[in-house]
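Key result, reporting period 2: structure in, sequence out.
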């Protein structure tokens, strides 16, 4: 398995004053510098996303349009928000061994309690020379109260 890691330090501000926490988070994710930089990195790597693709942790298929070299994109999430996203857990990916050419997972692994098992599942469903592209937040306080795993401790 080839690996490609998005490892960048994203700096951003807090939510809009006077708004609820939910509104602030929605606003943050729709307009934040963090999100803009992440999407810029994803676009820069998009041409590498080819063949049969698994988008792991894609509750809304936000990045499908970037992956124009993909033959087919299958999206999974534990809490899908669209009908075309399969309900599945990264700890038990419901696909055969060596099924995907590329797996992408953006801002997802911090919610998984057993990251090692999740990465083993990704390796299992990837073809021999497959590519895994993922990102996790680094110094991102927005996730602070809901993350299962932080990679800074």
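The corresponding designed sequence is given below.
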């Amino acid at each position: 398995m080839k690996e490609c890691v998005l490892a960048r330090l994203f700096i951003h501000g807090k939510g809009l004053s006077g708004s609820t926490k939910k509104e602030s988070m929605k606003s943050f994710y729709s307009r934040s510098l963090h999100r803009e930089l992440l999407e810029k990195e994803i676009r820069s790597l998009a041409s590498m996303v080819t063949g049969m693709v698994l988008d792991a942790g894609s509750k809304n298929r936000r990045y499908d349009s970037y992956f124009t070299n993909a033959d087919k994109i299958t999206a999974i999430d534990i809490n899908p928000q669209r009908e075309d996203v399969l309900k599945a857990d990264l700890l038990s990916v419901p696909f055969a061994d060596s099924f995907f050419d590329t797996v992408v997972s953006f801002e997802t692994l911090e919610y998984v309690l057993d990251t090692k098992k999740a990465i083993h599942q990704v390796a299992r469903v990837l073809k021999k020379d497959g590519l895994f592209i993922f990102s996790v937040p680094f110094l991102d306080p927005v996730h602070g109260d809901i993350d299962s795993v932080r990679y800074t401790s």
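The radius of gyration is 15 Å. The mean pLDDT is 80. This case is discussed further under Risks and Mitigation.
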